[in-house]
Amino acid sequence: MFDYKLLAALAAVVEQAGFERAAQTLGLSQSAVSQRVKLLEARVGQPVLLRGTPPRPTALGQRLLNHVQQVRLLERDLQGQVPALDDNRLPERLRIALNADSLATWWAGAVAPFCADHRVLLEHVVEDQAVGLKRMRAGEVAGCVCAAERPVAGARSQYLGAMRYRALASPAFIERYLPRQAAAEDLARVPAIVFGPDDRLQHRYMAAVGGTETFVHHLCPSSEGFVRMLQSGLGWGLVPQLQVRGELARGELVDVLSGPPIDVPLYWHHWRNGGALLDELTRHLVRCAGVWLVAE
């Protein structure tokens, strides 16, 4: 059987990004927290933390953290059923992985009423929609928004809708770099803007319009910075239509080609044994995601 005081020490060190703040949270000395983590490692026979700045969990530590999170959620359910067990604990914290474009557009509006009604705090882990599921697989998060439909073992997935992307640039960029009747081959010769090395949206768009997957590009791992770079005429890029409705209406950004948009399906993944809170969050997201996302 696990000693949950030891697991709580591990969780606090990771969540508070260090032993000192973990000690303050738990009301213990820093030495006591360190001893609890060492005792946990002695019992499981291998390290659970990489002692850096900040400390990071090992693969086993990640699995233990996921277990702790699920236990907390199940304890919350039990407290709701047995009021005498309610010890006035702080709001529950959920770690959620999602893509930066969702965080910059529809996510906050979708989850704000849920967090207020259920006294939930969120910790966001930002990953590209194509690879976010690795956080679930590693046991680091309770839920994930990503483009993968198939869930990891022990989890469920639910389709939410699609995020629509358009290939856009500033009028000044179009005038400088692209001819009046621009074609896909012209895009390969002018600067693009790509979110990061895992971002394949531009490649997918180029394939859809008959272009090459090899093109020059800037890297910009920020949704807000991405739009600013487009507006500044640094390049063209795929950007969520949701994020730039004002810029489109004002003519600050325009389509680079007349081709179709790219729709990226988004799925919500959560643990099967995550308790009633995750189940209710799932129902809430399914109900309200359609306000922002398009149906494929």
For the structure shown, list the relevant keywords.
296 residues, two-stranded antiparallel ribbon, D-Maltodextrin-Binding Protein, domain 2, 7-stranded mixed β-sheet, alpha/beta, 2 domains, Arc Repressor Mutant, subunit A
Question: Quick recap of the structure?
Answer:
By secondary structure, this protein is an alpha/beta fold. The chain folds into 2 domains: 1-89, Winged helix-like DNA-binding domain superfamily/Winged helix DNA-binding domain (Arc Repressor Mutant, subunit A, Orthogonal Bundle), CATH 1.10.10; 147-295, 3-Layer(aba) Sandwich (D-Maltodextrin-Binding Protein, domain 2). It has helices spanning 4-15, 19-26, 30-44, 59-81, 100-104, 107-118, 133-137, 171-177, 184-187, 201-208, 223-231, 245-249, 275-288, and strands at 49-50, 56-57, 92-98, 120-126, 143-146, 155-169, 192-194, 217-219, 237-240, 254-255, 262-271.
